[in-house]
Design brief:
- The complex is a heterodimer of chains A (about 300) and B (about 425).
- Chain A has about 300 residues and is an alpha/beta fold.
- In chain A, about 30% of the residues lie in helices and about 15% in strands.
- The relative contact order of chain A is 0.15.
- Chain B has an 8-stranded parallel barrel with strand order 1-2-5-6-9-10-11-14, surrounded by 8 helices.
- In chain B, helix 3 crosses helix 5 (about 145-160) and helix 13 crosses helix 14 (about 390-405).
- The longest helix of chain B is centred in the middle third of the chain and has 19 residues, at about 145-160.
- Chain B is globular.
- Classes of the chains: A alpha/beta (about 300), B alpha/beta (about 425).
- The interface between A and B is large, with 72 and 72 residues.
């Protein structure tokens, strides 16, 4: 499926599993088995989670994690079908570089990538970049500013800007590429992006429902809202989170409710093929087509605006 | 005699004019990279090299329409490509002026993990303040400080890569402060090899201390030998073995049955790559003026050139800007070549052909002999190659030149059981 359609079943996984020993290596057997289960069960997308940076907490507990954007390139290289949704820690992102990284993944996988920008930094991550003492409200505003700069950079290339006129040698229509001239509270960015942005001008954003986040995730403008059971999505396209500790009956009920209201389901799992298979068994009694909508999440106005 | 090393430079892969077949799949496709990497793998190359650009090229203050936009992000491109092509090393170009040390350390160690130790870092420094405008920090460093900052970043990242066993890594430098737990345990290479291309005294000193591969502009015998000797001396002065830094000149190559055919093919490849628009841009660079009113198919403009001070920079954002000191002399050269008869386009083509040294242009035997001779003479440890035309010329090199180098016992026949990219290079990481 394309990352812009409504996902039916999405699995959220922690950082790429590593094998033990002195040297960090990807646990390829586990990754490949998990991907095979996900593809076999018709899962649409993986949200690739992980804290920013430090591989251990202050108490010394180890949580070594591959960078989500690099983890995404690994997974996208190992599967031809699944969409991958890396968590992006906005506060720490250099907009021009992160915008290009995500756009590149979108180009080279023909649209199999979305993103889940995270506004709130974790305490231990702030230490990594020497920001522990910073004002939290200001950090939040800065993170939101990074997200809008990234989106702005993606939109600097209008559809049709790439040309293939081999007779004249004109390969870019510069009238369809605009500078960004982003001027925020914290930084300025000239732009445009060095490569075109993702197809459609913007990646699909996964994020919490505004209400659940005390009204603040409006700043995130998620295309696909992650809702708790019973919670109402404000924009329409939602993934309802399947509680980790739910009984079999509760699971079936969450899935049925999601199905009835035209939403998808978000399943949290660890990197273990058997656990994932067991979790996805809860969907076995349901006709997966019943969860399919096929409608585009993207509002038609966006496309119109992108062409204007 | 040590073994030869080859890398393939992908910089012009997205350019239609540099693509020798009819099936170009567009400026943003991954397929050409995969095809090239697979061919290079068949030729047992050491690495695929991906350059980077932080701001789109401008010409006379507006976006250059003669450039292609296919400049992907090297980190994610190569992270994905590594899953589909085994063994070969992957060189990521990343700017040291703007990078955050923690982020940079985490990205590279993550890449080293997902590629099973096949990554290297081509360390570049900022071009100018104009590029810095694209970054949050707006960072721009005066020339003298750029290499100090690069060295500081290399030290900070090395501390993080080696720091897993301590609870906390602390690094304090003039521009970088880190105080945090390392992101990952030791990765397959620990510290990815550094590739360095700066040709200035500061660049060469940095290479002596940190680089395991130097991407040299000197493919000629004397220049190559002088550069290689200097970098090897700098390595020894930094407490390293001279053999731990490889000098690989960049070189364009074209293979054909005979030398004469190869030269003809090379000239044809240049002609293909210089479009009418690119020719007009060349003329605007020579004259320092907007010549958009002129047809590239018409005669040269009957105008005097503007000086660099009068015109300002014609081109911004290209990595190697040709500094024009005397535009009158350049324009005289154009007029001499055109001889009152040739068009702007034809003149530009001939000038570019004349600028192209025919070093690795010839029959397989001629090219192999050139490479072996320079290797023996201590002028190179191999080459970072780019084909006259993508992708077919690389096939020709792999199928016809590589066997001659293997027969001479100077090049590997298979990848063997090397543990990582550094093993393939046969170098050792600089001491810490």
């Amino acid at each position: 499926m394309s990352a812009v359609e409504r996902p039916r079943v999405v699995v959220q996984l922690g950082p790429i599993p590593l094998v033990g020993g002195d040297i960090a290596r990807v646990d390829r057997a586990t990754v490949e088995q998990v991907l095979a289960v996900l593809e076999d069960r018709g899962v649409d997308a993986i949200i690739l989670d992980g804290a920013y940076g430090p591989g251990r907490s202050e108490s010394g507990q180890q949580q070594a994690a591959v960078h989500p954007l690099i983890g995404a390139s690994l997974l996208l290289g190992l599967t031809q079908r699944l969409t991958v949704v890396p968590v992006v820690h906005a506060l720490f992102a250099e907009p021009i570089l992160v915008a290009r990284r995500l756009a590149t993944l979108d180009h080279i996988t023909h649209g199999r990538v979305a993103w889940a920008p995270q506004i709130e930094p974790e305490e231990r991550s702030l230490g990594a970049v020497g920001r522990v003492d910073a004002d939290r409200a200001a950090l939040r505003r800065e993170a939101v500013e990074v997200i809008s700069a990234i989106r702005g950079l993606w939109a600097t290339w209008r559809p049709g800007a790439l040309l293939d006129d081999r007779t004249s040698g004109r390969y870019i229509d510069r009238d369809l590429v605009r500078p960004l001239d982003f001027r925020g509270e914290f930084f300025t960015i000239a732009g445009p992006l060095v490569t075109p942005g993702p197809r459609g001008g913007r990646l699909v954003t996964y994020g919490p429902v505004a209400a659940a986040d005390h009204g603040r995730s409006d700043e995130l403008e998620p295309d696909i809202e992650i809702a708790e059971p019973g919670e109402v999505a404000t924009h329409g396209a939602a993934l309802v989170r399947l509680p980790a500790d739910a009984t079999g009956e509760e699971r079936a009920s969450v899935i049925r409710d999601a199905q009835r209201s035209g939403h998808g389901v978000l399943v949290h799992s660890i990197w273990d093929p058997r656990s994932i298979a067991a979790l996805l068994d809860a969907f076995a009694d349901l006709d997966p087509r019943a969860l399919a909508h096929g409608a585009s999440v993207r509002q038609p106005e966006d496309d119109k605006e992108a062409r204007a | 005699m040590s073994t030869l090393h080859f890398g393939i430079n992908t910089a012009l892969i997205g350019n239609y004019g540099s693509w020798g077949r009819a099936d170009h799949t567009g400026q943003l496709d991954v397929a050409p990279y995969l095809e090239l990497a697979r061919t290079a793998h068949r030729g047992r190359f050491d690495f695929v090299f991906v350059s980077a650009r932080e701001r789109i090229v401008e010409h006379l203050g507006r976006i250059s329409e003669a450039e292609t936009a296919g400049r992907p992000d090297p980190f994610t491109l190569l992270g994905l490509l590594a899953q589909q092509v085994p063994d070969i090393g992957l060189v990521v170009t990343s700017n040291s002026t703007y990078a955050d040390a923690y982020d940079q350390a985490w990205l590279f160690s993550s890449l080293d993990v997902v590629t099973d130790g096949r990554i290297a870092w081509n360390v570049v420094t900022s071009a100018d303040a104009w590029v810095g405008e694209n970054f949050r920090s707006g960072a721009y460093l005066p020339y003298e400080q750029r290499y100090a900052r690069a060295a500081e970043l290399l030290e900070a990242t090395a501390a993080l890569w080696a720091g897993w066993d301590s609870d906390h890594v602390t690094f304090t430098g003039p521009t970088i402060q880190v105080s945090a737990a390392a992101p990952l345990p030791r990765t397959p290479q620990g510290r990815p090899p550094v590739v360095q291309a700066g040709d200035s005294p500061e660049g060469r000193a940095l290479a002596g201390r940190y680089a395991e591969v130097v991407f040299s502009p000197h493919a000629d015998l004397e220049g190559g030998r002088a550069h290689r000797d200097e970098v090897r001396r700098a390595a020894v002065a930094a407490g390293r073995s001279a053999d731990d830094v490889l000098l690989l000149p960049g070189a364009r190559f074209v293979v054909a049955d005979t030398d004469a055919e190869a030269r003809e093919k090379s000239n044809e490849a240049v002609r293909r790559s210089v479009s009418p628009l690119a020719a007009l841009y060349d003329a605007e660079e020579a004259w320092g003026r907007d010549l958009s009113a002129y047809s590239p198919h018409g005669p040269l403009p009957d105008l005097n050139p503007l000086s660099e001070q009068e015109s300002g920079p014609v081109i911004q954002g290209r990595n190697h800007r040709r500094l024009v000191k005397d535009r009158s002399a350049v324009v005289e050269q154009w007029r001499a070549v055109a001889h009152g008869k040739l068009s702007i386009h034809e003149t530009a083509v001939r000038l570019r052909i004349a600028r192209n040294p025919h070093r690795l242009v010839g029959s397989p035997r001629t090219i192999a002999d050139f490479i072996l001779k320079h290797h023996e003479a201590g002028a190179s440890d191999g080459y970072i190659l780019y084909p006259g035309l993508f992708p077919g010329d690389l096939d020709e090199f792999v199928d016809r030149v590589v066997p001659l180098l293997q027969e001479a016992g100077r090049y590997r026949s298979d990848y063997g059981d090397h543990a990582n990219f550094r093993d393939l290079l046969g170098t050792q990481a600089p001491p810490r």
